[in-house]
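Good day; I would like, with your permission, to put a structural problem before you. What I wish to show you is a protein chain and, alongside it, a tokenised description of its three-dimensional fold. Please examine both parts with care and let me know of anything in them that strikes you as inconsistent. Thank you for your consideration; the sequence and its tokens are set out here:

***
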Amino acid sequence: MTTGFDYPIGPQRIICMTEETTEWLYLLGQEYRIVGISGYTVRPARARQEKPRISAFTSAKIDQILALQPDCVLGFSDLQADIASTLIRQGVQVTIFNQRSVAEILSMLYQVGAMVGQAQQAMERIAAMQAQMQAVALAAAALPRRPRVYFEEWDEPPISAIRWVSELMGIAGGDDCFPELAQQSLGKNRIIADSSEIVRRDPDIIIGSWCGKKFRPEKVTARDGWQNVKAVQHQQLFEIKSPDILQPGPASLTDGLAHLHRIIMDWARVYA
């Protein structure tokens, strides 16, 4: 018997304008709710075959979004404010997250889980991530020396690590060479105007994740004056793919952290 008031709970037609919410909804088994995704989505790989791509990062196909009749659009940061504003004026529910730290990423994951009726599963998965972070931090605590790590998000001009990446480096056992810049949410405020300052801080490890293009270590080692940097002398230059570390969602807390920890522990076996 039905009363006629058995309404579905939570959004049923979700558009994810960035990758992290897409990946999370797939992990929660709620991918059936997704009706559109970002064109930059690569996690999970099958999402690109299963879902229409309706947005970049700072632009979106508004007409296509409206045609999909979403009851919820999920986005990230002030950079998507104009898209959000346009959709809100069209009567669309929009939720924009602005997670910049590990704690804020975990909070976002819980909120999205609760929105789709999966609060308990979300908490269990979050607890597993936290346990893994704790295990990595305990292993890192045994290091006789922590390496100085320079994380380069972009090369021309050089942009240093965003806050959650800086925090993950710390959990993994390294010390961010530019911790003061990590507090700046905008990339333009993390530009290192004088690259000689990177040389002066003399990182033991250099990690590149040039958002949208392949990291070229040979270009880094050829920079003027960089021959004296320990990371260059010891050939400690590595790439972590952007979807694994620059996505403020499950990828960075799992695969991104694992990559960082592996690089640091390999360095420690030789140079610590």
